[in-house]
Specification:
By secondary structure, the protein is of the alpha+beta class. Helix content is 37%, strand content 21%. It is built from 15 helices and 16 strands. The protein has an eight-stranded mixed beta sheet with strand order 1-5-6-11-10-9-7-8. A five-stranded mixed beta sheet has the order 13-12-14-15-16, sandwiched between helices. Strands 2-4-3 form a three-stranded antiparallel beta sheet. α1 runs antiparallel to α5 and α5 packs parallel to α9. The protein is elongated, with a radius of gyration of 27 Å. The chain binds adenosine-5'-triphosphate and magnesium ion (MG).
């Protein structure tokens, strides 16, 4: 028996409705904010992620699925969604279109991580990318989009953490302050942080090792080292969040796991799914497009982990009922009625009613039991009597009553019963 790979999940037929539910809500949020979907390939040139995500990040140093293809090219399965979007934005000349260019995507994400609860080797993200606007109102809109999406699903237990990691100007001063603080304790830091100390000190704040995390708690705050422009941008962002009535916590330890961020970074964290509680993470990345070969393009966005989102909703009892149950089950009450049942099924579907017919030769009782199991709201029975009277017996699976309906009126009758005549 060949099993699925470590850190991957199958979404089985009885669970896929959960994905449809969150994806439908995401697409509706996207529509309300006038975002257009972008789909980019699952694999890209490795170079894109080296330049985009950054050579000192965990993703690039430890987690990428990289291989050489038969043409000798170095290829990497997407370890995040943004770099591919930036590449497509440049390649398709989207900078020539009216700005901002507001996009969203669904993507699988591949990272060679140590699998544990909430940490997979293939996970999926709903992502938002807002290109072309420098204004803090765009950062606030990115956060508002995520918040509206969570609200639409009834999720209330998330804490929004925000921070600003400034620009290159602020970073020089901050790096020095951080290094001065870390230096006396450098020996006790993990090996990765020792490398980060020289190459990219800010990354130290993102370390997941307990010893490093403890030391980081009292590290100087990046917010205290913002240049006037970045400080003003951060303060404007907070003004917009307050105006929107969005509660937030300023958390100076959030720096995010990718190098491309500057100024705003944020995370929505849940308390209901254990240690891997970050459901949505994002920020501003004004350098990314130029880092991967385009012109200077301010940008802000986020990635939202769909497996973690579904875990949160399940933990909070918000997932609701399976919405994929067929409306009607057609019971073949006599072998002679088989074709009539199949034709009725075709007709119901043509009028927008989802239904299921018998293909297993079950008894009437077993068919009704199965209809119950499928959670059908109604059933239609055709047997010898119905065939000779040219009728259909329509049964309400919940209330239990049944009525005889003329065959040519069956679809209209059922539609009225199910949706008051109008397809939902
Ligand atoms: P973490 O700090 O948890 O490793 P990250 O910084 O790597 O997160 P991002 O790259 O910003 O996370 O990804 C955005 C979102 O995607 C995360 O907030 C999370 O919901 C989800 N995510 C990231 N990595 C995984 C994973 N290995 N398994 C499942 N979901 C993930
Ligand atoms: Mg990670």
């Amino acid at each position: 028996m060949i099993n699925k790979q470590k850190g991957t999940l199958d979404v089985l037929p009885n669970d896929s409705w959960k994905w449809h539910k969150v994806e439908t809500a995401a697409r509706e949020t996207a529509r309300l904010y006038s975002l257009k979907e972008i789909r980019t390939p699952t694999f890209e040139a490795t170079e894109l992620f080296l330049r985009g995500v950054g050579g000192t990040t965990d993703i690039v140093t430890k987690e990428m699925y990289t291989f050489t293809d038969k043409g000798g090219r170095s290829i990497t399965l997407k370890p995040e969604g943004t770099a591919g979007v930036a590449r497509a934005y440049i390649e398709a000349g989207l900078s020539n279109e009216p700005q901002p260019v507001k996009m969203y995507y669904f993507t699988p994400v591949f990272r060679y991580e140590r699998p544990q609860a909430g940490r997979l080797r293939e996970h999926h993200q709903f992502g938002v990318e807002l290109y072309g606007a420098q204004a803090a109102s765009m950062d606030a809109e990115a956060i508002l989009i995520a918040k509206s999406f969570f609200d639409s699903l009834g999720i209330k237990d998330l804490t929004l953490n925000i921070n600003s990691i400034g620009c290159e100007t602020c970073r020089a001063g901050y790096n020095k302050a951080l290094k001065d603080y870390i230096k006396p304790n450098l020996d006790s830091m993990c090996d990765t942080c020792k490398v980060r100390f020289d190459k990219n000190p800010l990354r130290i704040l993102d370390c997941k090792e307990e010893g490093c995390k403890t030391l980081n708690k009292n590290a100087p705050s990046v917010i205290d080292h913002l240049c006037p422009d970045c400080a003003a941008h951060f303060s404007k962002l907070q003004g917009y969040l307050k105006a929107y009535g969005i509660e937030y916590v300023i958390n100076p330890l959030i720096v995010r796991g990718l190098d491309y961020y500057n100024r705003t970074v944020f995370e929505f964290v849940s308390n209901s799914i254990g240690a891997q509680g970050t459901v949505c993470a994002g920020g501003r990345y004004d350098r990314l497009v130029s880092d991967v070969g385009g012109g200077a393009t301010p940008a802000v966005g986020f990635g939202l982990g769909l497996e973690r989102l579904i875990n949160v909703m399940t933990a909070l009892g918000l997932m609701g009922e399976d919405i994929s149950a067929p409306d009607v089950y057609i019971v073949t009450a006599d072998a002679a009625a088989e074709t009539a049942c199949l034709i009725l099924g075709k007709e119901l579907r043509e009028s927008g009613i989802s239904c299921e017919c018998d293909h297993m030769g079950r008894s009437i009782k077993a068919q009704l039991k199965y209809a119950d199991k499928l959670k059908c709201r109604m059933s239609c029975i055709i047997g010898g009597d119905e065939l000779s009277n040219n009728t259909v017996t329509v049964k309400d699976m919940g209330a239990g009553g049944q009525e005889s309906v003329k065959r040519d009126r069956a679809a209209a009758f059922i539609k009225t019963r199910l949706y008051g005549g109008v397809k939902k």
